[in-house]
Design a protein that fits this description.
single chain; mainly alpha; 10 helices; 0% strand; VTT domain-containing protein; transmembrane
């Protein structure tokens, strides 16, 4: 465990920036916990996650705008999701950009939908930057203030580390079954 913490101290900010290109939730929460332990600077972690998310979202929109044909071919399986995101973009506009940061699975599709549409990229950049700042502050502070509970849980796990492989295996099987059930329901509804 100490080796992991040491590695995160050395490479944490770089990993956080790269991880924040896409989602970034888990990375930012981990950075908040590491900040509570005194291993990372909370404000720097929030800033880096925010910058990574701004760059990642804008890069997706930019690529979708100027590499539309190639991306549509690559994302052929996700055509319906992208179409739904475009409908939501027309219906909810700016609010979708702001709140999509908190919706897992939609967060990546909204910049793609914006790139595929005629939405102004400069306007998207400004709104996206604002929503990324809010997202990074909220998630980073939640990770920081929830860290005492997580640290207590990790200490209990460390005391009974021989049980962890079984717990992880059961959790993995449970997640697989849950995702399979949700996927079946989603396919039936489409």
């Amino acid at each position: 465990m100490q080796d992991t913490i040491h590695s995160l101290e050395q490479w944490g900010y770089i990993l956080l920036f790269i991880y924040s290109f896409g989602g970034g939730y888990l990375g930012l929460i981990t950075a908040g916990i590491m900040s509570a332990l005194g291993k990372m600077d909370l404000y720097l972690a929030i800033l880096i996650a925010c910058m990574g998310n701004i760059v990642g979202s804008f890069l997706l929109a930019y690529l979708a705008r100027y590499q539309k044909k190639e991306l549509l071919t690559a994302l052929n399986k996700h055509r319906r999701k992208i179409a739904l995101s475009q409908i939501w973009l027309k219906r909810y506009g700016l609010w979708l950009i702001i709140f999509s940061k908190y919706l897992y699975g939609i967060k990546t599709l909204v910049p793609l939908a914006i790139g595929f549409s005629s939405f102004n990229l400069k306007q998207f950049f400004i709104i996206n930057a604002f929503s990324c700042v809010l997202w990074a502050i909220i998630v980073g502070l939640c990770g920081y203030y929830a860290s005492s509970g997580v640290i207590a849980l990790l200490e209990k796990i460390d005391a009974h580390s021989y049980v962890m492989p079984f717990v992880l295996a059961i959790l993995g099987i449970f997640m697989y079954i849950l995702i399979a059930q949700i996927s079946k329901k989603a396919k039936k509804s489409l």
